[in-house]
Amino acid sequence: MTRDATPEASAQWDVSVSADRPWWQLGLGEVWRYRDLLLLLVRRDLIAVYKQTVLGPAWQVLQPLLTSIMFAVVFGLMARMSLPGIPPLLFYMSALVPWGLFNGVVTRISQTLVWNSALMTKVYFPRLVPPLATLLSTGFSFVIQISAFFLFAIGYALAGRFTWNMGIEALAVPVLLLVLLALAFGLGLLVASLSVRYRDLSFLIGFVLQLLMYMSPVIFPLSRVDEGSGLRALLEANPMTPILEGFRAALFGLPMDWGTVLYSVAWAAVALVGGLFLFQRVQRSFADVI
Known about the structure:
The chain starts with 6 loop residues before the first helix and ends with a helix. About 70% of the residues lie in helices and about 0% in strands. By secondary structure, it is an all-alpha fold. The model is unreliable at about 1-5 (pLDDT under 50). It has one domain.
């Protein structure tokens, strides 16, 4: 392989790598040809998380469970911010699990280029492979956590402590999941592209996401906030608000406001296109800057 090779020199090689490809040509076919590397990176990420741990993947359940228990005691039982008729533990898990996916994807993708710098400076491969591997490995944690939510919900229902009314609204979960992943992936690519030159962003993003969680309906439902208030407007401006409210509605059989979900879809589309544009634009100099 060679970069910007002359016709005579490139004739000696099977593949010629150049930096003149337009940003909208993502090279997904090339990513598919490197699927073995993609799966290898996913496996590496999962092993790195669980290596030398006693409980292994059980930590993926314990982390949101312990946080949900704390929120249930402090905000659910003491402050009574959860919805009536829904066990506080389930109420908080229904938002903490998708929020954890969003937070994990943005945080880990924002650092994936720096983490894989040694690999990027030694061999060529599609630069979208590491972010996609991070997306898949983080999605594995979500599958474990959402499965735990369903197990707890079934346990509450069988114990007679919860009337589970989940019905056709559950079909919205895959749609909401796709919107969440598109939004998180796009934002992660934006931060990752900028973090190559400005490493401060890798420290700032964690702080920003922590603040954003408190500006999202994780601790309390949106219905607890007065209509027309400044806080309500601030919460509704957050693109994660319709997604989290939508997850709760889908999981508990509550009314779904599709109009607000479209707002998140628009945000996700802008973030994904903007993230891919910036990522493709600056990837030419990744190896030199990292």
